[in-house]
Structure formats: structure tokens, C-alpha cells
Write a structure and sequence with these properties.
single chain, about 300 residues, mainly beta, twelve-stranded parallel β-sheet, five-stranded mixed β-sheet
Length: about 300
Amino acid sequence: MKIPTIACLVWLAFPILAFETRATDWFVNNQIGDDRFDGQDAEVRGANAGPFRSISRALRAATQGDQITLADTGQPYRESITLQGAAHSGLSYQDFRITGNGAVLDGTAPIPRDAWEPLGDGIWRFSPRRMSYQLLYLDDEPAERVVVARGELALPDLQPLQWCLFERQIYFRAEEDKAPGDYSLSLTALPVGITLVDVNRVTISELTVQGFQLDGINAHDNVFGATLRRLVLQGNARSGISVGGASRVIIQRSLIADNGAAQLRTEDHCVVQVSGCRILDHSAPAIVRQGGRIIGDDLDD
């Protein structure tokens, strides 16, 4: 039997090495980027070389095992994104990754000044387009909410700068001699920050996700080997994180707080492993289970 030469061995190994180095890094910057750039560099290098402006554009370019790196520009990324299928999954040796570097993904939108209806005594009313869940923001932070019990027939007594959701409308009380237009008021407008469906081996890290009308992150179904690490999930109208279907998700060293109906929500047959997280329940229950299993950090199996 003839022993292969070193040259032959190198030639035989080449296809494997080429396969294992095909993952690509994509860069996004919502200030200096342009979706017509090639996304291959964090800085602008020429007419077509530089970062994308939107995360959505990077996801359209990305393939299996790639990494998307966001620049923290001090300005939120205002978009709703979806990771779905093999193109947004990891390889056997490398996860598909989105690294936020402290950036913010924000789903709020300003309320037009003329959208408010005056009712007297400083009370104003506004009818949002989406009504199932809502949060009102004041100066880019969730405003103080008065929760109205189901079946309540009367508007509660609102103090200045408080709000409530009553009879499918938002009510807000302004300070004396002021109107809603005198404040920076916004509401949760985009539906979900990050939707995951039919993906394997995904890591999302170092990102704040806030101001979405449903969930900050929704692992909808068939999400396996997903890791959510060093995230802040706050001020979303339903939950910070919702996990459903048969998904398997790990949440590590994250803060989940100030969400409207639940901080962490599970349903169906999912399994969620929680490690080193702060889940604050002062705005809504820490955990709402409609099925599923949560393990770790002194939580019940």
C-alpha cells in the first residue's frame, strides 16, 4: 500500500479547513453605517466598504455560523428583528452570534401632540393602535402606571404624571397648566424586539431590549441551544422574555425588570435554564408559567 505524501495529506485536508473557516463577521453602526455598504468592516473604508446601518440588513447577508457585531453609538437601534432557519443557526463548532457591545434595541415611538383628547382636571386620553398590551414612556423611561383591575367601572384617581389603561385607552394626568405635548411621551409600538424560530445554536449578548409592545425576546418554537447572556430586558409591555413550543433556552447574567405582565413568561413544553440573573417583580410577576419548565438559581424544577 502506498503511503500518501505530505502534499497529498495537505490537499486532502484543505476542503475541511475551508469549510471550518467560512463563517463571516458582519458589522452594524446606526450612525455612520449604510445598508448599501458591504458590512465587512466596523469603520467606513471607502465608497462601499463599511458597516451596515441596520441589524435587519446584516441578517439578510448572514449565513450559518456568522457573527453580527453592533456598535454602541449612544442612539438606539429602532427595529424589530427575526432569526429564523438554518441561515441564522450555528455550526457544529460555532454559534450564530449577535453581540451588542452595550447597544440598545428600542421599540418605542413618540405619541403625536394632537393625538391626545382633553377631559378636564389635567386628564388626557389617547387611543393607541395596538391595545392588548401597552406601556407609556416618559422621558425614555416607563412612566408610573396605575393598574386597573379587571371589571373596574370607574377611572382611577390619577396623580400628576401617572397613567392607566382603561376601557382600551390610555389615560394620563399632566401637571397643573401643562399638556401632554409639554412632555416627551412615547409608547411601545413595535411588536417584538427579537423573535427566534426554528434556529439552533444561537448566542445573543450585551444588548438592552426595551419598549416593545409584546416581548423583548420571544423564542417562539423549535429554538434549541440558544444562549441569552448579559442582557437587559426592560419596559416591554408583555414580558422581557417569552419562551414557548419545544424550545430550549439558557439565560445567563441578565437583568429582567419593569415589564408589563411578566418578567419571564413560558408556555407549552419549553425548558428554560436561568443562571446568575436578576428578575425584579415590582412591576409584574417575576415568572408567569402557562406550561414549560424553568430550572436553576433556586427556582423550582
